[in-house]
Amino acid sequence: MEWLLWAEHVLVSLLLAALVRLAVTEGLQGVLRAVLVGLRYVPGIGELINWIVRTMAAQFAPQLTGGSSSKKDKKPPRVALPKKGLSYDVILEEMKRLQKEKDADPHAGRMFAYVYTLKEDDASKVQKEAVDMFMERTGLGDDHDRFVQEVYQSFLHTNALNPLLFPALRRFEIETVSMVASFLHGDDQVVGSLTSGGTESILMAVKAYRDRARKLYPQITQPEMVAPITIHPAFEKAAAYFCVKMVHVPVGPDFRADVTAMEQAITGNTILLCASAPQYAHGIVDPIPEVSAMALRRGLPLHVDACFGGFMLPWIEKLGYPVPTFDFRNPGVTSMSADIHKYGYGVKGASVVLYQSTDYWRYQMFSCSTWPGGIFGSCSMAGSRPGGNIAAAWAVLKAMGEDGYMKTAREVMETTQFMISNVKNIPGLCILGEPHMTAFAIGSRGINILALADEMESKGWRMERTQNPNGLHCSIMPSHTNVRDKFVEDLTAAAEYVKIHNTSSEEGASMAYGLASKIPDKGLVDDFLKEIYMEFYSKC
Ligand SMILES: Cc1ncc(COP(=O)(O)O)c(C=O)c1O
What is the per-residue pLDDT across 259-289, written as a single tens digit (0 to 9) for each? Predict the structure, then answer.
């Protein structure tokens, strides 16, 4: 025990020496600063300081936003998706009222950052016309698209980087997150952010879990996350960006996550488990209840990637189709991502990332208080955030309402079922696994699937190739309803042609897939892909 006493003496002497040195070099203020910083690491005191910081922030923020700091108003009530979609006129009126009431005017010349607008002249008209020309067609009809366009244009020059300049955008964001949380069965603790898309939502979740692990488990220096191989590459991207090792595990013959394999892949470095609802390739939902139970048992957080299905599975389930419980009803699900710009029918650039509570969301935030350009805070990857996307996201959810999403889901699901049952009847083809929603992958029973893709493309279809095993992915959208018979007719003819002619020649994208499958060194394929991308974007 005596050596412990000695060690303590040495430590205290070292500490005192460091403080004396600080006093000499930086003065008394430097010592004070160091003591205060040091105090944060003393057990109990750190938590107390955090509590004070949070309480002060909760009281200070409303002074900036003009909200209420009274305790009973602390949590705004959850805004649910309207049962019945609101009319376009009602929504537009409300948006314009909010915009006029509080938002800064990007053209008034009173702001000194955030919006870089032309004067309202011919050039700005060209900008608006460009938006007209390139506005996305969602497949829900001209009225819907025109409505989204009008909303988008009204907020064309707004920027959500500063949460105080455009309060309407802030409100749209809070309410959009709230509406999505409500139909994904989040309780009133669920919080989150709007991002530019599925990838950004996933990047943010992985970053949050990495930073959480840094704080709570500092002994983990090489964090890992475990996910089935079918998880979207956005996770791999996040792993690369944030220095988290991705541990992929194989899926079962049904293309669903193998929960036992996932559990076996957990090590002392694991900070996160991931699963999909559904995975993109085959439209199949992982066994989320089982993964959730395992996550709870192992004390690990679980992100469910519902980028693809978040805006489709809830309605499919309500229509009576069998869907595994995939959302916050599973207590082990600590975060989810759901894309508004997919089956939410918003315009490109809108997704939601949700967390079970601020205990996780907190780690998503970024701040830089020392920049000469000002005190800087940001909650997602992007700096400037286009207000048009945020406004359009909110407006679309209000306009669709639960009845709108249900109606569209019914139609799209019927089209999907029609296509699936017809594909199953085409000799030489099959459906890979048992898809849960409005997407499937066509597999081969003896036919060269890449040659089939080429043959379909010669008929004007744009095919999506998948691999391991080769397949053709189809996400079904409202616009497919009118062409479903033609699709089956062309696919039947194409399959027959490939079979009779024993076609195996592969062109274009199929050739690339064929080649890639023959190269055992996937690192080489990755390098080649990066070079190809530089070629794509350096020449027209
Ligand atoms: C399951 C899944 N997750 C994530 C993403 C990434 O979304 P985004 O392309 O919007 O970045 C996709 C895209 O298709 C997806 O299907």
Answer: 999 999 999 999 999 999 999 999 999 999 9
**Residues in contact with ligand 1 (CB, 6 Å cut-off):** 197-199, 232, 234, 276, 279-280, 305, 307-308, 339, 351
**Mean of all residue pLDDT scores within the chain:** 91
Closest C-alpha residue for ligand 1 atom 9: 198
Atom of ligand 1 nearest to the CA of 309: 1
Residues in the chain, how many? 540
Strand partners, 429: 444
| Structure-block tokens of residue 451 | 């040659």
- Predicted TM-score (pTM) of this structure: 0.90
Q: How would DSSP label each residue in 248-305?
A: EE-B-TTSSB-HHHHHHT--TTEEEEEEESS-TTT-----HHHHHHHHHHHT--EEEE
pLDDT higher for 164 or 329?
329
Lowest mean pLDDT among 321-330, 476-485, 519-528: 519-528
Task: Give the distance from CA 84 to its chain's centroid.
Answer: 26
Contacts of residue 486, defined as CB under 8 A and 6 or more positions apart, other chains included, come to none
Cβ within 8 Å of residue 207, ≥6 positions away: 238, 241, 242, 363, 364
DSSP 487-506: HHHHHHHHHHHHHHTT----
Q: State the distance from the centre of ligand 1 to the C-alpha of 233, rounded, in angstroms.
A: 8
The whole-angstrom separation of Cα 144 and Cα 141 is 6
Distance 261 CA to ligand 1 centre (A): 24
- Whether residue 69 has pLDDT greater than 80: no
Instruction: Identify the pLDDT of residue 466.
Output: 96
* pLDDT tens for each residue of 126-162: 767 766 766 667 777 788 888 988 898 889 889 999 8
